[in-house]
C-alpha cells in the first residue's frame, strides 16, 4: 500500500489508539498525553499521512462556518465508529473540516459540548446522536439556528430532522424469524438507556409476540446497562438465561450481542443446539464466530450518506426536511439459529446428544452379541453411503453386528419382500427408511412384533407410537426453509421475480414437509417473487421431462426449487439441453454431482442433511433401546447445513468428514 493511501484508521491501529484520539491529535480538539501525541505524530510522518493532511487542509474552507461536527455517545460502538469514517469522507469532499465530540452518553457532558459548539463561529452544522429524546433539553440547540440532523436516535418534537433505522421493523424481523421457527420462549435483551431507539425496538418485539398470539404481559425482556461495564452486563445476562431458560435469544444492540456470545461461551451453552441467537451484526466478527451469527444488519453507510445530504441541504437552503428518513435494515440468516421441529406425531425434536449410554449399558451391549438389519428405500448415493457408514461405525463400537443392508430401489413391493427376509434373520433391531408411507405399513407392523424399529426420515402411515422406538430425521422444515430463503435472497439481490417449483409428488412425510416449508417462506417473506408453477414428479426419472415441460411452458422462470439432489441433477440436465443454464437452481443434499454443478455456477445454494450424523444418531437410539427400559425420545432431529458456493469446500468437509477432491466427479 502506497503512503498516499494510508487512512486515519491505519494510523490509529499502528498507534494502538482509537480513531477519535488520532483525530484529536490532528485537529487539537482535546487534550491527549504528550507522549501519545509524539507517538501518533511520528507515525503520521513515517507513513506520509501528513501529506494527506496538508492536501486536505488546502482544499478546506477556512474562517466562519467551515467545520462539521459529529456529536456522538462513544467511538467504541461499531455504528458510531463506522459512521464517523463515512461522514468524514463525505464532509471532506465538500471542503469542510470534520471534528468529533464524544458525550460518553452523559447528558451533562453533552450539554457542555453543545454549548461550546453553538458559540463557535466555525461550526457550519452538527450531526447529532442525542443522549435524550426530550425536546426541551435541546431548546438552545433548536433555537440557535445552527443546522443539525439527528442520526440513529431522535429528539421528539416538530421540525427536527433525523435519519434513523427502522428499529421497530428490525427487531420485529428478528423476533418474527425466531417465533416462525417454533420458538415460543424468546428472551429479548435491550439497552437500558431511555431513548426512542429503545422504545421502538421494544414495540417491534411486542408486535411480533402479538402476531403469534403470545400474551405480551408475559414478554421476556431484560434491560442491560452498558455503562456498568462488561462484567456487570455479562452477570445480568447470565442470571436472565438461568431464570427464563429460553430456547432463543434476541440481542438489542452490538455490545449486548458481544456480551451475550461471551456469556454463552463461559456457561458452556451450545448455540444453536441449546439456544438460538439473533444478534445485532454491525460488527465484522459476527460472520467469523462459530457458528456464524444470524444478525440484524443496519446500513450504516446509507444512514451516514442520507444524514450528510440532509445536513448540507439545510446549510445551503435553510429548509427543514418534512418527510421521515430511514436507512435500511435486513435480517441475515446464518447458523446461530435453528428451527424447532416436530415429528410425525407432533413430538418435539430431541437433540442427538440427548441419547447417552452409561458405562454399564455399553458393557451389556458388548456382552449381548446383538444383531441389527438395515432397510434403505434406495442406495447408490453418497447420502445413503454416509448413513450406512454412520450406523455401522456407531454400532461397531458397541460390538453390535450388522447382519444385512437392503436396497429397495424406491420400490415398495421390493421392500416388503426384503422385510420378510429380514424377519427370517431374526435381528434384535431394524433401522429403516420406508420406500412408501402407506404400502409398507403392514410389513413394518409385523416386523415390530419381533424386532425393535428405528425409522429414519419418516414413519409409515397408521403405525402407532408404541410400535417403534424412535424416528431420526433432519429438521425438514428448516431444510426447506433454508433452501427457499436462499432462493428468495438470490432473486431479491439479482432483481429476479419468476420462480418455478419441482417437488416430490409421492406422499412422503419428509419431502412433503420440506417442499411446503420452501413454498411458505417464499410466499411469506418474498411477496415480489411469483411462483409461476409448481409441478410434481413421482418417480425420480420423471423429473427430467417435468423440467423440460415446465421451462418450455414458462420460459420466464429465472430460478428453480427442486426437492433434492437426484431429481435436481435431472432438472439441470434438461436446463442445459434447453440452453437455460441462466436458471439458478436451489435444492437439498450435497453430493458429487451437485457439488460439480455448484462449481459450474448453475446451483446457487442448497441446504443439506447430515447423513453421517443421522446414521450415528439412529444407531445410538437402537443401542440404547436394546439394554435400557428408559423412555427414549420418539423423534430425534438433526439440524441441516446451509451451503453457498463460497462455502462449498468447508461444507464438504463438514458433511463428508474428508477434504473435497480438487475436482469432484
UniProtKB/TrEMBL annotation:
Domain HTH cro/C1-type: residue ranges: 5-50
CDD domains to which the protein is assigned, alphabetical: HTH_LacI, PBP1_LacI_sugar_binding-like
Source domain of life: Bacteria
Database matches in InterPro entries: Cro/C1-type_HTH, HTH_LacI, LacI/GalR-like_sensor, Lambda_DNA-bd_dom_sf, Peripla_BP_I, SBP_2_dom
Entry keyword Phosphoprotein: no
UniProt xrefs under SUPFAM superfamilies: lambda repressor-like DNA-binding domains (SSF47413), Periplasmic binding protein-like I (SSF53822)
GO molecular function terms attached to this record: DNA binding
Record-annotated HTH lacI-type domain positions: 6-63
Pfam assignment, any one: LacI
Keyword DNA-binding (UniProt): yes
Keywords assigned by UniProt, alphabetized: DNA-binding, Transcription, Transcription regulation
Protein name in the entry: LacI family DNA-binding transcriptional regulator
Amino acid at each position: 500500500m502506497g503512503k498516499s493511501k494510508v487512512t486515519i484508521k491505519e494510523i490509529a491501529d499502528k498507534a494502538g489508539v482509537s480513531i477519535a484520539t488520532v483525530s484529536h491529535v490532528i485537529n487539537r480538539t482535546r487534550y491527549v498525553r504528550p507522549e501519545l501525541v509524539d507517538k501518533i505524530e511520528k507515525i503520521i510522518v513515517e507513513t506520509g499521512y501528513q501529506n494527506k493532511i496538508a492536501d486536505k487542509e488546502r482544499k478546506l474552507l477556512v474562517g466562519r462556518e467551515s467545520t462539521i461536527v459529529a456529536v456522538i455517545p462513544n467511538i467504541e460502538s461499531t455504528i458510531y465508529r463506522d459512521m464517523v469514517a463515512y461522514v468524514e469522507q463525505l464532509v471532506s469532499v465538500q471542503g469542510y473540516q470534520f471534528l468529533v465530540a464524544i458525550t460518553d452518553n452523559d447528558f451533562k457532558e453533552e450539554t457542555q459540548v453543545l454549548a461550546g459548539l453553538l458559540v463557535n463561529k466555525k461550526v457550519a452544522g452538527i450531526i447529532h446522536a442525542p443522549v435524550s429524546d426530550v425536546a426541551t433539553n435541546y431548546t438552545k440547540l433548536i433555537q440557535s439556528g445552527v443546522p443539525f440532523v439527528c442520526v440513529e436516535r431522535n429528539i421528539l418534537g416538530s421540525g427536527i430532522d433525523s435519519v434513523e433505522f427502522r428499529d421497530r421493523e428490525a427487531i420485529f424481523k428478528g423476533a418474527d424469524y425466531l417465533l416462525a421457527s417454533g420458538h415460543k420462549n424468546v428472551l429479548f435483551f435491550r439497552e437500558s438507556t431511555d431513548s426512542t431507539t429503545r422504545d421502538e425496538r421494544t414495540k417491534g418485539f411486542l408486535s411480533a409476540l402479538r402476531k403469534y398470539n403470545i400474551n405480551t404481559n408475559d414478554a421476556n425482556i431484560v434491560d442491560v446497562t452498558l455503562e456498568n461495564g462488561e462484567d456487570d452486563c455479562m452477570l445480568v445476562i447470565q442470571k436472565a438465561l438461568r431464570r427464563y431458560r429460553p430456547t432463543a435469544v434476541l440481542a438489542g444492540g452490538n455490545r449486548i450481542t458481544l456480551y451475550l456470545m461471551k456469556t454463552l461461551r463461559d456457561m458452556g451453552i451450545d448455540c444453536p443446539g441449546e439456544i438460538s441467537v439473533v444478534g445485532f451484526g454491525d460488527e465484522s466478527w459476527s460472520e467469523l464466530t462459530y457458528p456464524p451469527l444470524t444478525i440484524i444488519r443496519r446500513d450504516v453507510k446509507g444512514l451516514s450518506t442520507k444524514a450528510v445530504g440532509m445536513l448540507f441541504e439545510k446549510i445551503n437552503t435553510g429548509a427543514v426536511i418534512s418527510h421521515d428518513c430511514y436507512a435500511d435494515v435486513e435480517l441475515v440468516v446464518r447458523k446461530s439459529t435453528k428451527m424447532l421441529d416436530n415429528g410425525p406425531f407432533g413430538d418435539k425434536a430431541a437433540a442427538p446428544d440427548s441419547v447417552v449410554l452409561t458405562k454399564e449399558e455399553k458393557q451389556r451391549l458388548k456382552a449381548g452379541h446383538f444383531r441389527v438389519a438395515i432397510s434403505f428405500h434406495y442406495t447408490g448415493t453418497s447420502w445413503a453411503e454416509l448413513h450406512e457408514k454412520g450406523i455401522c461405525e456407531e454400532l461397531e463400537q458397541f460390538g453390535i453386528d450388522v447382519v444385512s443392508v437392503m436396497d429397495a430401489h424406491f420400490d415398495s413391493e421390493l421392500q416388503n419382500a426384503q422385510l420378510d427376509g429380514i424377519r427370517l434373520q431374526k435381528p434384535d433391531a431394524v433401522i429403516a427408511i420406508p420406500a412408501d408411507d402407506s404400502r409398507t405399513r403392514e410389513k413394518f407392523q409385523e416386523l415390530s412384533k419381533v424386532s425393535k424399529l428405528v425409522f429414519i426420515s419418516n414413519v409409515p402411515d397408521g403405525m402407532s407410537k408404541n410400535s417403534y422406538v424412535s424416528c431420526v430425521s433432519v429438521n425438514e422444515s428448516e431444510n426447506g426453509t433454508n433452501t427457499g430463503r436462499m432462493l428468495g435472497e438470490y432473486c431479491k439481490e439479482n432483481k429476479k421475480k419468476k420462480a418455478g417449483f419441482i417437488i416430490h409428488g409421492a406422499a412422503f412425510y419428509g419431502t412433503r414437509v420440506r417442499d411446503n416449508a420452501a413454498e411458505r417462506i417464499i410466499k411469506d417473506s418474498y411477496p415480489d417473487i411469483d411462483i409461476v408453477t409448481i409441478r410434481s414428479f413421482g418417480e425420480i426419472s420423471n423429473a427430467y421431462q417435468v423440467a423440460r415441460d415446465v421451462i418450455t411452458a414458462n420460459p420466464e422462470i429465472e430460478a428453480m426449487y427442486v426437492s433434492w439432489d437426484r431429481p435436481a441433477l435431472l432438472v439441470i440436465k434438461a436446463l442445459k439441453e434447453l440452453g437455460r443454464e441462466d436458471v439458478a437452481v436451489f435444492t437439498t443434499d450435497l453430493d458429487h454431482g451437485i457439488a460439480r454443478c455448484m462449481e459450474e455456477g448453475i446451483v446457487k445454494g442448497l441446504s443439506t442433511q447430515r447423513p453421517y450424523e443421522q446414521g450415528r444418531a439412529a444407531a445410538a437410539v437402537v443401542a440404547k433401546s436394546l439394554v435400557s427400559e428408559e423412555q427414549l425420545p420418539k423423534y430425534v432431529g438433526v439440524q441441516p447445513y446451509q451451503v453457498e458456493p463460497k462455502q462449498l469446500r468447508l461444507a464438504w468437509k463438514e458433511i463428508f468428514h474428508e477434504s473435497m477432491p480438487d475436482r469432484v466427479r
